[in-house]
Amino acid sequence: MVDYEPRTRLDTHDVTNMPPAFGGLNLYETDVALKEAARLHGGGWVDGPLSALGAAAGSDEALQAGEDANRYPPKLRTFDRFGGRIDEVRFHPAYHQCMALAMEHRIHSIGWREKRPGAHVAHAAALAIGSQAEAGTMCPMSMTYASVAALRKQPDVADAWLPKIVDGVYDAPLRPIAEKRGVTIGMFMTEKQGGSDVRSNSTRAVPMGVGGPGGEYLLTGHKWFCSAPMSDAFLTLAYTDRGLSCFLAPRIKPDGTRNSMNLMRLKEKLGNRSNASAEFEYKDTFAWMIGEDGRGVATIMDMVHHTRLDTTAGSLGIMRRALAEAVHHVRHRRAFQKTLIDQPVMRAVLADLALDYEAAAMFTMRIARAYGETTPEERGFARLGVALGKFYIAKRTAPFVAECMECLGGGGYIEEAATARYYREAPVNAIWEGSGNVIALDILRTLQKEPLALDALLAELAAARGRHPAYDTSFDALHRLIGAGVAEADARHVAERMALALQAALLLLHGAPDVASSYCDARLSGDTRGINYGASGARLAVDAILARQ
Asked: What angle do CA 308, 140, 324 make, to 5 degrees?
């Protein structure tokens, strides 16, 4: 089929003053903030794989596939034509195209495959880039990446799976693992009655033999929110006589037959539409125990610790796509005798938006760097930092995307515009893997029980003292606030103040000076009172900030 240029001379008017289509660009090379932060925290070697991914994900073909995968969502097929139960989800070809691109560029495995500093930085940056092309497929990428941390607790089971994860390519058809070139892993934790309170789960596990770590079990129960149900296996929780335990349930059993997992329905979600989320029932479902019997939460939390990094990185990618779309539009659209980007109030809004993105990029890459470190201090920093990142950046994403959408006017609100899709996508990372209250209370527990984590954070913050008066005042106030002890009702307030301070510190230590100073003036100064973007009252270095976009 031949593609023709659209008609721009219609019967009643000429089509003018419209921006060209967004695309045909390298999503890494054109992102100054991400590139600087990834190189700083990951090392220069990350440029190669990230630039290759940026070119592929920013191509017209990949961006169109991302749109199509959401426009034509997955469909549940419970039975085959003969009445046999198959419990399968059928996807539009664009979904498979997005998955293949992601796995080809190792979004799911570069963090484990590269045995050098910065590997997890490369993963987080890659997931942010992948999210700009299609965010829904980053869910199976994230869970497959994070599953390695939990599977390593049970080497006798993991040995068959890890090579298919770390070295695997996308291989969608359902087959025994020995016949597959690559696999993806999902996670089923929550149930109707408890949600995040997994201790209230009711699914039971009965040993097929002696049981114990690596042993074979049959599971019976339900799971309420199961993302990526077409994965090859799922890490899941169920009770044994010793308590809540972790299991790996494959979709194909060792004897080559389908495992008994009943896919009840697909969720109709606000966003993340390309990704099939489902409700499942286990009925004598085969699974292997992973980790210690009765210690399932501790085992699967190793996986959650890594998926929380991806909720932060995924939010970063959503922010970037929305900001890039806004900047692209205002550079090409004219109103009131000026290009929109030359209008002072528009410049103020865009610069304010860019401050949040610059801070989020530096923050996310710093957190990811800690994932590859082995010192107790850095491990503590990763534990506390990722909770702060998920709490603040993921929550900031929805209002951020809304403002970017408004930069496009009414054209940004229609479904043909990527901003509409990304606005629907924006809330998911603030909810997935623990909503705001859960994360804020987790931060509070970390402050109380892990002094090394707090010490590592305070050391990072203290290093930036003396570089900006508003920062110094904010740091001192935060130090007093934490030192006085934090009540549960204040958990969100303290989490937000910590996240703001850490972002400011990282910019002051490593960021562009004009960006760092403007961020402190706009986000930390007691003289600024505005709530909306462009309304802070701070005098931002607008020209310097926008020159980086």
From this structure: 70
